[in-house]
Specification:
The complex is a heterodimer of chains A (107) and B (483).
Chain A: H1 9-18, H2 25-42, H3 84-88
Helix pairs in contact in A: 1-2
Chain B: H1 15-19, H2 25-43, E1 46-49, H3 51-63, H4 66-70, E2 78-82, H5 109-116, E3 120-125, H6 159-166, E4 172-177, H7 183-189, E5 192-195, E6 215-220, H8 223-233, E7 263-267, H9 277-292, E8 296-300, H10 308-323, H11 342-353, H12 356-369, H13 374-395, E9 401-405, H14 421-425, H15 432-437, E10 440-448, E11 454-461, H16 466-482
Classes of the chains: A mainly alpha (107), B alpha/beta (483).
């Protein structure tokens, strides 16, 4: 992170597009203000020299010995899964076996 | 601190009495339902109540032969469930509009274990939307009010879970904790809340927020009932590859051993600027009394503490932005009407379905993961996460448990911080560290402010050493009762 580069409206629009969010112009302004404040606060992490520190993605990686690696992986065998009908029942629009969405391919 | 001597900080344990048939499930359930009828309209802890099903199940348990009931570890215990955990047959909204109408086709493992042990599911509890918040003001279904002061927040995100216990709407509830979401509301509402070690309790059936941080744990009116429930929900689950195969001890055994000879670490970094004087007095007073009980109190340092909140808000939002990509209007819940193209459908559904805080976190998470920023923010935060975790490993080489305030202040007023996300994030300043480090902990009531608001002490323990945390918690509980 470079020195206090504030988040621009363009940045907000770019990440909103990446995240499939549609923001009103009021929301864009508000999010620009909030993201700038939060990321400004995050800048203090730069006070720490972490050049020689390995990133830690999840904690099991730190607990060598506490647990055998991959100990909790299950056997790769065929087992029953949830019933399709019950899963499809939760969809806003579906037929018996497919989720329905607006047309994707224009012709 | 003006101590209100009429206010009882703990409830009497019920689980063992239920199992022995000395207490009736139907009576306990009716007490909970009566409290719901009397106060839920105002407190808003429950989003849905499974009245008929619960009543029938409680009657079944009472009618069991003593030997049969004795096998059920939680026979007839009424439990409320945070609405981010699925229960087949009950709605699961995660307090979001985007899951309105969703009926999950399966039950979360932690809940299934409760049911299998004889617990009676009372209903689903309000929370911050997708468990994102520290005040329960982010629910699409209205704020939860603190039973100890209805102009106050109950804390978040498990605000409904804590308020329900505090208002007698269930003796025990399940909550989830990603950055303090069990412990902080437990402190604000004056109840016991337990954060199990990462991997101790299965997350299968938990609507995910930040997968490297999320935990499921109990809230209760006393330490013993919390220990009983933890013992039931803990353990390996084939449906959650992050769940641990480490054996589950009986957490009620040794609960009363006390703190004599135990080494308790007190980190200077948790008692600095910003700590409310009444909270300080209550927590320091409790530590002094634990010392009088024979604990060895040692000053320690967790030097990276001040970097925990910024680290947390990078990692949690990055993971949230990925987890919440699944809410697209295709598979569950709500879809925005009148979208002509697929892209429009995604965007309108997510725009109408998500509240402001969820959008803020998705945007922040997307930003820190995006090209050109990944190393500067996300990788940096993961590096600092290691330093924070290492602080705890170093400390635990010298002490058996760590004691701190759970929150910098007692419950704040509704609306006080809702316009300032950064101020809200700082409400988690003492709790996020445990999530980042994967360790276990608890918040236990230790006093009351002059305004009658509860104060909590946080106890942090080594990975998979919940037994020690609960033992210290029980000692704190006993101190209050003999005060």
């Amino acid at each position: 992170m470079t020195e206090r580069d504030a988040v621009s409206l363009e940045d907000v629009r770019r990440v909103a597009e990446l995240a499939q969010l549609e923001l009103s112009s009021d929301e864009e302004t508000r999010m620009q203000r909030d993201l700038s404040a939060i990321l400004g606060y995050v800048q203090q992490l730069n006070e720490l020299d972490t050049a020689k520190v390995e990133p830690l993605a999840q904690i099991a990686a730190l607990l060598h010995g506490a647990e055998r690696e991959n100990a909790s992986l299950r056997e790769d065998e065929v087992r029953a899964s949830l019933e399709r009908k019950r899963v499809m029942a939760s969809a806003p629009v579906a037929d018996e076996s497919y989720f329905k969405v607006p047309k994707v391919i224009e012709r | 601190m003006a101590k209100n001597t009429t206010q009882k900080l703990f409830t009497d344990p019920v689980v063992a009495g239920l199992r022995a048939g000395e207490r009736k499930a139907t009576v306990l359930l009716h007490e909970s339902l009566d409290a719901i009828d009397a106060r839920n309209k105002r407190v808003n802890a429950y989003l849905s109540v499974a009245r008929e099903h619960a009543t029938a199940r409680a009657a079944e348990i009472d009618a069991m032969a003593p030997a049969e009931r004795g096998k059920l570890r939680l026979a007839g215990l009424p439990c409320g469930i945070k609405d981010v955990l699925t229960v087949e047959g009950l709605p699961a909204t995660a307090s979001s509009r985007i899951l309105k109408g969703y009926q999950p086709p399966y039950t979360a493992t932690a809940v299934q274990k409760l049911i299998d042990a004889g617990a009676v599911i009372v209903g689903k509890l309000n929370c911050d939307e997708f468990a994102m918040g520290s005040s329960n003001e982010n629910s699409a279904y209205g704020v939860v009010r603190n039973p100890h002061g209805e102009d106050r927040v109950p804390g978040g995100s498990s605000g409904g879970s804590a308020a329900a216990v505090a208002a007698g709407m269930a003796p025990v509830t399940l909550g989830t904790d990603t950055g303090g979401s069990i412990r902080q509301p437990a402190a604000f509402c004056g109840v016991v809340g337990v954060l199990p070690t990462y991997g101790r309790v299965s997350r299968y059936g938990l609507i995910a927020f930040a997968s490297s941080l999320d935990r499921v744990g109990p809230l209760a009116g006393n330490v013993r009932d919390a220990a009983e429930v933890l013992g039931v929900i803990a353990g390996h689950d084939v449906m959650d590859a992050t769940s641990s195969t480490a054996p589950v001890p009986d957490y009620t055994e040794g609960l009363d051993k006390g703190v004599k000879g135990m080494r308790l670490g007190v980190p200077a970094e948790y008692f600095g600027e910003g700590l409310d004087p009444e909270v300080r007095e209550a927590v320091e007073g409790t530590i002094a009394r634990l010392k009088a009980e024979g604990a060895e109190v040692k000053p320690i340092s967790l030097p990276h503490t001040r970097y925990a909140v910024p680290t947390y808000y990078v990692i949690a939002t990055a993971e949230a932005s990925a987890n919440l990509a699944r809410f697209d209007g295709v598979r569950y819940g709500f879809r925005a009407p009148e979208a002509e193209t697929l892209a429009q459908m995604y965007r309108k559904t997510r725009d109408l379905g998500f509240g402001a805080e969820v959008k803020r976190r998705i945007l922040l998470g997307t930003y820190v993961l995006s090209a050109g920023y990944y190393d500067a923010y996300y990788k940096k935060a993961q590096q600092v996460r290691r330093l924070l975790a290492q602080d705890f490993l170093n400390a635990f080489a010298e002490v058996d448990a760590i004691v701190t305030p759970t929150t910098p202040t007692p419950a704040f007023k509704i609306g006080e911080k809702s316009d300032d996300p950064l101020a809200m994030y700082l409400a988690d300043i003492y709790t996020v560290t445990a999530n980042l480090a994967g360790i276990c902990g608890a918040s236990v009531p230790c006093g009351v402010s002059k305004d009658g608001l509860p104060i909590g002490i946080q106890i942090l323990g080594k990975h998979f050493d919940e037994a020690t945390v609960l033992r210290v918690g029980q000692a704190v509980e006993r101190l209050q009762e003999t005060a």
